[in-house]
Amino acid sequence: QHQPAVVIAPMDEDRNVLLVRQYRYAVGESLLEAPAGGLEEGETPEVCAQRELREEVGYAAQALDLLASFWIAPGYCTEFMYAFWAQGLYVDKLDPDEDEQIVVERVPLVEASDLIRSGEIRDAKTIAALLLLQSKL
Question: Nearest to residue 73, comparing CAs of 125, 19, 21, 28?
């Protein structure tokens, strides 16, 4: 059982996506990922997306566009995810969660497919969000 979650593809005015590099204990390495997190009690996906943006990359978005929603791993998990494109970014930082050690990296959106193919990006929710954004643009 798992609560719903969001993944966000935040894009700046130069068409860079803001990704986060963080250590993931389950796989024993640092991964390059899109900002993401679980909905808190009573929170809408849009409110959660703004909170996660502020916590993980230090920005909020003037506009959120729902790219898609999907089951993460329906064979064994109830987690349902909402993927957003965040635009009109502006500085609005919240303190990160205590257990998060995050480094923000700006990646040109045009390079995202190459990073996926090379294995630099191996996180499924990030792959989905970036490919959805590329197909929209």
Answer: 125
SS3 66: strand
d(CA 69, CA 8): 12
Tell me which H or E stretch contains 113: helix 112-118
The pTM of the full predicted model, rounded to 2 decimals, is 0.91
Catalytic residues: 98
CA distance 113 to 51: 27
> With bands split at pLDDT 50, 70 and 90, how would you rate the model's confidence at 31?
very high
Q: How far apart are CA 13 and CA 42, in angstroms?
A: 32
Which of 52, 107, 116, 121 is closest to 84 using CA atoms?
52
Residue 131 backbone zone (phi > 0: left; psi -120 to 50: alpha; other: beta) = alpha
Residue 58, C-beta contacts closer than 8 angstroms, at least 6 positions apart: 91, 92, 93, 94, 104
